[in-house]
Design brief:
The chain has 172 residues and is mostly beta strands. The chain has one helix at residues 49-55, and strands spanning 11-12, 65-66, 69-70, 75-78, 86-93, 97-101, 107-120, 123-128, 132-135, 140-156. It has two domains: 1-67, no CATH class; 68-160, Sandwich (Jelly Rolls). The longest helix has 7 residues, at 49-55.
Length: 172
């Protein structure tokens, strides 16, 4: 295992089969659907050593540290090769807003700090630290900070991970 120090706003992508642990700080971990999450130690809980040895990758190398790519004024996208999900951070200052359009899959949003309001379909929902909200595919919404600022993370399905629409294609 490598010891990697990350600054706030940085992240890494760990492919399946990579043993990893968090020693301190706050992190957001987003995983693809899986039925083989196994503990590798550092816990009093049961560790399935034989099962762990079957799935672990022993490739060496340092993980790539990602700073994210700005996508608009308030969103930073952490791009990976994973088709199943995409993670973004959304930092809202007082008086700013984020326009959400779930055209690339449903969004799941969690508030890490501050408070925000999500407005959609003529309704508003107050979100405080720890709140999680689901925005279905195709729903347009607006997020704005309810106080001085809010930090949120958004999990979505990237366009490349969506199956082709039955309505797309050409007509003959």
């Amino acid at each position: 295992m490598n010891l990697v120090h990350l600054r706030p706003g940085q992240g890494t992508f760990q492919p399946s089969g990579t043993l990893h642990a968090y020693l301190e700080g706050v992190t957001v971990e987003l995983m693809a659907n899986s039925d083989n999450v196994l503990r590798g130690g550092l816990t009093p809980k049961h560790v399935d050593v034989l099962g762990l040895m079957k799935i672990l990758s022993f490739d060496s190398g340092l993980p790539v540290v990602m700073n994210g790519v700005h996508s608009g004024a308030s969103e930073c996208v952490y791009q990976t090769s994973c088709d199943e999900f995409q993670l973004s951070s959304i930092n809202l200052e007082s008086g700013t807003q984020y326009l959400g359009n779930t055209g690339n899959g449903p969004d799941t949003i969690i508030v890490l700090s501050g408070s925000a309001t999500l407005a959609a379909n003529g309704r508003s929902t107050a979100l405080t630290r720890g709140s999680i909200i689901f925005a279905p595919f195709g729903m347009r919404y607006v997020l704005y900070a309810s106080g001085d600022r809010a930090m949120l993370f958004k999990a979505s399905v990237p366009l490349r991970g969506l199956p082709p629409s039955p309505l797309s294609g050409s007509l003959n």
